[in-house]
Amino acid sequence: MVRPLSALDLARRIEGGEITPADVVARCAEAIAAGDATIGAFAALDLAGAEARAKADGAALAKTPLRGLPVGVKDIFETADLPTGYGSPIYAGYRPATDAALVCMIRRAGGLLLGKTVTTQFAFMDAGATRNPHDPAHTPGGSSSGSAAAVAAGMVAVAVGTQTGGSMVRPGAFCGVAAYKPSYRLLPMVGCKTFSWSLDTAGLFAAGIADVAYAAAALTGRDLRVDRAAPAAPRIGLARPHIWPQASPAMRAAVERAARLAEAAGASVREVALPPVFEDAFRAHGVVQDYEAYRALAHEYDTHRDRLGPRLREHLGAAASITPEAYDDARRIAKRARHALADLMGEVDVLLTPSAPGAAPRGLESTGQSTFNRLWTLMGTPCINVPGLIDDSGLPLGVQIVGRFGRDRAALEAALFVERTIASSPGA
Amino acid sequence: MVRPLSALDLARRIEGGEITPADVVARCAEAIAAGDATIGAFAALDLAGAEARAKADGAALAKTPLRGLPVGVKDIFETADLPTGYGSPIYAGYRPATDAALVCMIRRAGGLLLGKTVTTQFAFMDAGATRNPHDPAHTPGGSSSGSAAAVAAGMVAVAVGTQTGGSMVRPGAFCGVAAYKPSYRLLPMVGCKTFSWSLDTAGLFAAGIADVAYAAAALTGRDLRVDRAAPAAPRIGLARPHIWPQASPAMRAAVERAARLAEAAGASVREVALPPVFEDAFRAHGVVQDYEAYRALAHEYDTHRDRLGPRLREHLGAAASITPEAYDDARRIAKRARHALADLMGEVDVLLTPSAPGAAPRGLESTGQSTFNRLWTLMGTPCINVPGLIDDSGLPLGVQIVGRFGRDRAALEAALFVERTIASSPGA
């Protein structure tokens, strides 16, 4: 089931006239026909529309930044032409009047919207039906479950997800693909269902780091591509946060192996001590998230409570009692931690840390834990899952590169450096 | 046409059992029947629903924080029970599936949604049909035109608006009511049509400062009321930005008069010099706003361009060429200016500056200029229009109090101090 498509490679071949956007759509359609009954990555599909568009406008699309590549979008982004369900029975079949800003940007850049990908309910923890392409008995992670799985299974070249806790980096790690959560608000959130307005961040999945950087550059017009020259050797800080013992032995070994490989390839690697405010910030994440979610999902909680997933319902009920003072405190802690992180990163380009506690857990009830992601989401910094390592059972183990706020290109370049050292190591 | 209702006074009388929520709804219904054919404050009304609710639940509502007071909401906030048109023919009669977070918060606090108030198209500069209650030949200001006019005309006790440039403080000044734009994101924007995600800020209109503070406290559960003790004498910085010459002689005199009155009443008043970065920040506002608007309104621009107002269409067309680099530069300037403002305000509690270039201009084609508001919106600080002064023709002249970020209560208290000194001065 696992055969991700390199967006960059496809784009180059389309640019060179070797293949057409219609060929790529056909290939994705085949992968969907072969696998999606098992994987369940899509909540809604528009294969016919994408095929028609690729055939009619193929030559024009081939000249656009995204070159007519097929894109999947997490089903918490509103689309006027496809239903938008937010993963919830409350909105089954709902048709908003408007496309989300990011959906319009995909179109402006020449991408083809192939479908909406499965999300957990309102991007929280009540799982959808998606399975992990590496082993359908395992979760693909969440909340951007369908986007990560669709890319891993070669059903789309690029997919959009969001992260509020760990909803990009974790499913990217579990599905063995590159996940890029940019600096806060680099990609617009207009028309995306809000869970926490201070934290929700749109991001991209693609096969590898160069692919996800290519897609980000094409969508935004920013200088984010990293495929045009060999990446410079980065200064890496190996970060073992206070929750390090919660990582599995395999994950701890994976991070340490990635560090050794990078060092052997010329990167400077040093252990960095995270200051104590980060432990407070780790807790502050939940306060900020939940205070905002109780307001952002007020309509659903107040008028459709019995149709919410049990985890979300219980969580919002508890969130009702968070005071404005506790929320303001949490935001102040976050601000202090951001300053501390900026200081810490004066001496390194990026941090290297686990993407998740381990490989994808067995079972579909839980999408796994965002333990190793929440703090960085609160910091608003770019976070990237670097794929390439596996555990003893053959499941992917992702390591995470955390960059400096606004220095997304440097983070992508460092992630590419690590990805390449892993790929060229014996037994990768 | 001008007889604003004091929300605080009504709330006290409801609490004391003198009047009921139904009495207040009836009074608002009378004002609407008498005046709205001329004023045109409402885009949609639910008087029958509010009356029924006030009659059925009056006793319970009287115990809520907002005590069943009638509220008007700018028609860029989504409502499931009332049409949401965003001031645009594209969305005439549109019914979203969801209530905006702030609409739910009004309901949670015990407010009654009386109707949706007229906004300019997508809260930009293409005017709606609302007239100024002080003189229907004059604009009420915009973009929160209907909300300011409805409060001034006693059609609601409280109204919600938003500000991206000067869309709260200016119509508050033109209509002679209190307008409170809180610190950025104190009130949630979820379910509000986005123009610029970095700038759009929800706020409240009410008759006077104590009323708007009462409503803000009731809605948020924050300690924002200022009516329980006499306000302390503030340290005021009289701010004449580089655009000061663009203020009318009457406006310049009004600000200077407010400063003298406050000083005579015990406030410390000093001239403050705004650092040069503020001139850059003034220009940066437009870059940030327009770059984001071209993305936030992508669906409307890309698929309904010919149905956009001419000003917005032209503006978005020009915005298309703003580069990510120019946007990032503008955001860096804004950040520097915020630091400079925090330094400046180490020595004063608030700034005193014009709310608008002058009184409401004659005519309905233009809603006036946001010249004296944009900079402060970019700073994210609380901004309050203090009503009470008039020009020679009897039209209101508003002066503006700008507070420190997150110190909303202090800003409201200072605004109340200034309002009281104006009200108790000879010839006010």
From TrEMBL, chains A, B:
Entry-linked Pfam families: Amidase
Superkingdom: Bacteria
Record-annotated Amidase domain positions: 23-410
One MF annotation (Gene Ontology) recorded for this entry: catalytic activity
Family assignment from sequence similarity: Belongs to the amidase family.
Protein name as it appears in the record: Amidase
Provenance organism: Rhodoplanes roseus
